[in-house]
Amino acid sequence: MGPHPAVAAIRLAVRRVLHDVLTDVATRRTLTPHPGTPHVPHPPHEQPPPPLVLVACSGGADSMALASALAFEAPKLGIRAGAVTVDHGLQPGSDLRAAEVVTRMTALGLDPIESLVVHVGRDGGPEAAARDARYAALDDAAERHDAAAVLLGHTRDDQAETVLLGLARGSGIRSLSGMAAVSGAGGRYRRPFLHLDRQTARKACMVQSLPVWDDPHNADPAYTRSRLRHEGLPALEKALGKGVVEALARTAQLSRDDADALDAWAAQAESSVRDAGGLLECAKLYALPPAVRRRIVRRAAIEAGAPAGALFARHIEEVDRLITGWRGQGAINLPGKVVAQRQGGRLVIRQG
């Protein structure tokens, strides 16, 4: 008799991602490290060590299900499996929670295991600040352990929430594309559960008798995502019927495909709209489709020092009017002390 369907589903999702990781590792190891230098394979007695894959585990149902599946699947593929838990220090007893997660990860046979304490700032609000601190800690752990990948337990429900949050911000198609299955430097972060719902992960934990910690922040109406989870999505399903989560997740994938294509178009077109000195020519920008032109403008603003997370659609629209609705208006201030202005038919974006 095979495993419970929920357990089988999470294991299959993880197995597929681990196969992808192995393929990527093999590709990187066979690439010539420097142009013109012949590749010298490892001698038999110096074979590279098995790749390490880490799981980011909070102790919640999603990440516990992910950790258990990684512990089960990784040894069969010759992969080392470890874990990282992040203590944000935002709740009383968070250190005890982190210690409990370490104990649970140890019981699953994961190694190495780290508990990392982070300082959460205030930039961008509490949720964004906590996310930034968490990813910085995960990046650091991955680099110290030379991990081939870090698995994250985001589910289809998380994806649907992310799409709705992007829609509320009005930030364009990239915001609607939600979370990528593969992201981060070198494809470090992998999200195996984006096609699985939250209940599947919770059911997998229950049938395996895995203890689960429910973060009280997830039910706190002070947080936007919590309100969306407990009030917004249920209201949408009541009004529109079941299937809203699946439809939003599908929208994310379609939007990502479109956004990737437009990003590639903008990258190819950028050199053609710059003059010999590298400045953007307004007349040539005007001739491009708006979606392509605004991507070029956004990239130029980020290169000038504007923080990507603080650069919203309204900022880009204001700069775009220097190209499409020029009436002698003055410079536009952007986040990061970046200034955009039109000078002699050129769009100049630089530090103020």
Automatic annotation (TrEMBL):
Amino acids binding ATP: 58-63
Catalysed reactions, semicolon-separated: cytidine(34) in tRNA(Ile2) + L-lysine + ATP = lysidine(34) in tRNA(Ile2) + AMP + diphosphate + H(+)
GO biological process: tRNA modification
GO molecular function: ATP binding; tRNA(Ile)-lysidine synthase activity
This protein's GO CC annotations: cytoplasm
HAMAP family (alphabetical): tRNA_Ile_lys_synt
Enzyme class: ligase
Pfam family, one: ATP_bind_3
Purpose: Ligates lysine onto the cytidine present at position 34 of the AUA codon-specific tRNA(Ile) that contains the anticodon CAU, in an ATP-dependent manner. Cytidine is converted to lysidine, thus changing the amino acid specificity of the tRNA from methionine to isoleucine.
EC code: 6.3.4.19
Full protein name: tRNA(Ile)-lysidine synthase
Family: Belongs to the tRNA(Ile)-lysidine synthase family.
Segments of this protein annotated with the region Disordered: 28-48
Keywords: ATP-binding, Cytoplasm, Ligase, Nucleotide-binding, tRNA processing
Organism (species): Streptomyces alboflavus
Domain notes: The N-terminal region contains the highly conserved SGGXDS motif, predicted to be a P-loop motif involved in ATP binding.
Domain tRNA(Ile)-lysidine synthase substrate-binding: 280-347
Biased composition (Pro residues): 35-48
UniProt-annotated location(s): Cytoplasm
NCBIfam families given in the database record: lysidine_TilS_N (TIGR02432)
Domain called tRNA(Ile)-lysidine/2-thiocytidine synthase N-terminal: residue spans: 53-231
